[in-house]
Amino acid sequence: MGGQLHVICNGAGLKKVPKVSDQTLLVSLQRNSFPVLAPNTFKEMKGVVSLHLQHSQIKEIASGAFRGLNKLIYLYLSNNEISTLKQGAFDELSELTYLYMDHNKMVELPKGIFSPLINLFVLQLSNNRIHELKPGTFAGAKDLRWLYLSNNEITSMQPGSLDEVENLAIFHLEGNQLSSYPVAAMSKLRVVEDLKLSHNPLKSLPDFAFQSFGRYMESLFMDNMALEKISDKAFTGVTTLKSAHIENNRLSILPKNFPYGTLENLTLSNNPWHCSCQLTPLRRWLESSRARPDAVCATPSQYKGQQVRDTAAFRTCKAPSKKPRRVSRH
């Protein structure tokens, strides 16, 4: 195969990884059969930058499996049956920037498994069976910016589990089993712009939930969560939110400090809204918004079924008066 920059052997019935020349930059071995990636499997592929191993029935990655791939930037391991990652599985992948391991069978992530990946930017772990995040899980991956953990079975994110990845900008956690918001773990994050929590059985959102990254958060997904209560100070520090999705919950009111001022897009449908003066700020936002989201009163009974935007429920509500602040003199 001398001199070829790209080696494509997809669906070739391979059971063994082929040899390639030193000049090869991309190797695609999708839809073959490599149940175990043994140590030094790829050690001759010194120049390879992109390695594609999707749909290859991989179950186990041994320690040192990728040894020698010192220039590898893209590694695709999606749609396999990986349940075992041996300590040292990713040794020597110091240039790796994009790692895709979604649609596998991983239940836990060994502590420090990603520590050689000092340049990792994107980690895709969606659609596995991961149960919890523990301290040290992401040790070493300090440059990680995009982390996808959607559709796992995460019930717990221990305090300290995100300490090493404080620079996450995109963090997707939808479709897990979180029954309480992991304030301690999340408080280490500094610059999250896009947060997805949808489809978790979270009934309440606590004070200061987003405070550590509130100046950066632009997009928040909290739909389909059975959410009943958002604490009064949940949105403290949130100053740049443009898009919020809270439909299909059990919310009747929104907290006073809900960040209407910056919002451009807000989805609200299928919540039992209580149309009283406490919801006046929402009514005002709906009146001034170009978007026309669906929001229907559930209570009081005389307004049931009416759109929050149109109902007469707010007729007697006073506009908030801005009182001049008294200067205290001592």
How would you portray this structure in words?
The chain is mainly beta. It is 4% helix and 17% strand. The chain contains 2 helices and 21 strands. The protein has helices at residues 183-186, 280-288; strands spanning 6-8, 26-28, 36-37, 50-52, 60-61, 74-76, 84-85, 98-100, 122-124, 132-133, 146-148, 156-157, 170-172, 194-196, 204-205, 219-221, 229-230, 243-245, 265-267, 273-274, 297-299. The strands form 5 sheets. Strands 1-2-4-6-8-9-11-13-14-16-18-19 form a 12-stranded parallel sheet, with no helix packed on it. It has a 3-stranded parallel sheet with strand order 3-5-7, with no helix packed on it. A two-stranded parallel ribbon has the order 10-12.
Short description:
Belongs to the small leucine-rich proteoglycan (SLRP) family. SLRP class IV subfamily. This protein has helices spanning 183-186, 280-288; strands spanning 6-8, 26-28, 36-37, 50-52, 60-61, 74-76, 84-85, 98-100, 122-124, 132-133, 146-148, 156-157, 170-172, 194-196, 204-205, 219-221, 229-230, 243-245, 265-267, 273-274, 297-299. The chain has 330 residues and is mostly beta strands.
